[in-house]
Each structure stands twice: as structure tokens, then as C-alpha cells.
Amino acid sequence: MTAPTRAKLADGRDLLFFALPGHRPAPVEDRRPLPARDPDQARLRFDRATGQWVIIAALRQDRTYKPPAEQCPLCPGPTGLTSEVPAPDYDVVVFENRFPSLSGVGAPAPAPADAGFVSAPARGRCEVICFSADHTGSFAELDPGHARLVVDAWRHRTADLMSTPGIEQVFCFENRGEEIGVTLTHPHGQIYGYPYLTPRTAAMLGQAREHRMRHGGNLFADLLAHEVADGGRIVARTEAFTAFVPFAARWPVEVHIYPNRFVHNLIELAEDELDGLARIYLDVLGRFDRMYPAAVGPLPYISALHQFADTEAQADGYFHIELMSIRRSATKLKYLAASESAMDAFISDVTPEDVARRLRDLGL
């Protein structure tokens, strides 16, 4: 992959352009009068009741909220006065978030050693990735070459952030749809570099470690093998990847995409596998968009790339993507009410097998 073209925004944040073959990025000077950044604007606080870190990032209250299309900060800004992307055009671009939950380089979050209130700087990195300059487009509408460029950008940022001191986990994700809480409709995602292992990742690694101790194999590889053998929840399968609705799906629509061989993260995928990932990802998103009539609108979803470092502590982690939607019918949404929000006990209104059957039928 060709190295990205690098630039700086007016307040010193990094800006990286990833270009399709034959395209040459042409950034202009960012001339906006942006305030100086405060690297200590967010803090970590440790919750003794759960043993989990909470990020306190009050500055995010000031982030851009549902601007009109002509004021979108993710559209190209050729004058250098209007946009987070000062350029006449772009293919894929990544920049540091102006309103980050995590910022600054430093040591990982400390292990609390006493019963008092523990706080620490929210070190880490928050980036925005714009999938296209087209304000009205979506990831599902990208052509395969452009989707592969997004995968390459994810991979580049994963490698860079995983090698950054103090970052313990790299998380690429997308929130699509106002129902999910999206405040900018331009097609984009985010990339977080956490200074600690997130609770879900720690829980999965704990389960995988226990599975290996009991059975000698990798938990995720065994789950994939069981899903393939059962077949009833498979949505799509290629030589390199398998997409399926998990046996214990939490969400009304939930699809996991696994590589057919064990890797920890995007960095470890071969070139043909990266091509295959772009294709099956587009396939699944296309099925999502065909689930409901145009009058209902596109399916809102969250896409989460679960990646793991090649270290002893994360050795059992198996790279995969989890896609989930809160839409449970054409007219109803799944809200995380008391059981889910207070007890973390999910109740599903649909059967995974029915969802998988419907998604299979939506294939082209």
C-alpha cells in the first residue's frame, strides 16, 4: 500500500489522505482560527463497583451536532476555511478528532492499588475516517476498489496505533443512522486507541483463555467451525471469510464476519484476504440495505472491528467484525431498557435462525 499523504490541521492535528491508484491528494492550508488543544481535556475514572474504567470527556458536549449539508465539516473544503478536510476532493481521509475522548501519548492506564477514588489522564487517540467525499453516499455503495482502500486505511492506522506507547487496544468502528445516535450523516467511522483493554475485549479473552485451558483449542476458531457445521445461521461464505448470525445473538440484526484462518488483526491478513474482506463486507452491508423498503430507510447499524495485539496477554484473540442493528421491524426499534442497560442481560425479540434465513434470501 502506498503511504498516505500527510498534512496538518490549523490546531496541529494530523491529517492523512489515502488515495486510489492514479489519484494525487492536494491538501490546502487549513486557515480556520481553531483554539489550541488541551491534551488533558479528558480523564479516566475507575469504577470500583465494576472494576472498569469510565472516560469523562466533557468537551464532547461541544461537538458538531447535525449541521445542514452545506456546513458538513467532513465534506471537502477547498478554501481551507470550512472543513476538517481542507482539500478540493479526496478518496479516503483520516484525521485526529477535534473533540476526542482520548488524547495524548503516555503510559497505559494504571492498575488501581487501593479502594479510593482513582483518576488518570485519558491518554490515547481518537481519529475520524471518512470513507468518501460523497456526502450522500454510504459504505455499502462504494465500489470494491474503494472499499479495499478503506480496509487499507484501517490496516495502516491499526499498525501505527498498535506500535504507539501506551495504547493497549485499537478499535475501528462505524455508527450509521440517526437511530444509532449519529450526529454527522457524511459516511464516516472512527478509530480509537485505548490505554486499557475494554471490558468486552477483556471478557472475550478471559473466555478464550478458559476454553484453551479446558479444550486445547481456540474458542473463536471452534465457534466458527460449529457455525459452519450447523449451517443454519450462515449468511455468506467465501474461500477466506464466513459471515453468520451468532447462536446467541443479542441484537435484532447481528452478523459476525470471521476470517477462515486464525489471525489477530488486520495487519496479519494477506493481500488476497484483504480483497476478500472488502467484498464480503460490502455483501453483508448490501443485504442490510435491502432488508426494508426505501420508505423505511436504510438499516441503522454499528460495525465493530475486534482486533488483538500479538502479545501473550491477547494471544487467544481472533480478529472478527461484529455488525449489529437496533431495528427489529419496519416500524420498531430495540431499545436497551432495564434488563439490558442495568443488568447487561439481553433479551432478543427474534430468533437468530430467522434473521440468517432472511439475510441469505437477500443475496444478489
TrEMBL record:
Required cofactor names: Zn(2+)
Keywords for this entry?
Answer: Carbohydrate metabolism, Galactose metabolism, Metal-binding, Nucleotidyltransferase, Transferase, Zinc
User: Where in this chain does the record put each Galactose-1-phosphate uridyl transferase C-terminal domain?
Assistant: 209-362
Q: Which Gene3D superfamilies match?
A: HIT-like
- Cofactor, how bound (note): Binds 1 zinc ion per subunit.
Q: Which InterPro entries does the UniProt entry name for this protein? A: GalP_UDPtransf1, GalP_UDPtransf1_His-AS, GalP_Utransf_C, GalP_Utransf_N, HIT-like_sf
Per the record, the GO terms for biological process are: galactose catabolic process via UDP-galactose, Leloir pathway
Give the annotated active site. H188 (tele-ump-histidine intermediate)
Q: Could you say which EC number(s) this protein's record lists?
A: 2.7.7.12
Q: Which residues form the Galactose-1-phosphate uridyl transferase N-terminal domain?
A: 42-197
Q: Reaction catalysed?
A: alpha-D-galactose 1-phosphate + UDP-alpha-D-glucose = alpha-D-glucose 1-phosphate + UDP-alpha-D-galactose
The record's section on Pfam families has:
GalP_UDP_tr_C, GalP_UDP_transf
Q: State a single Gene Ontology molecular function.
A: UDP-glucose:hexose-1-phosphate uridylyltransferase activity
Q: What EC class does the entry list? A: transferase
Instruction: State which pathway it belongs to.
Output: Carbohydrate metabolism; galactose metabolism
Similarity-based family: Belongs to the galactose-1-phosphate uridylyltransferase type 1 family.
Can you say what this protein is called?
A: Galactose-1-phosphate uridylyltransferase
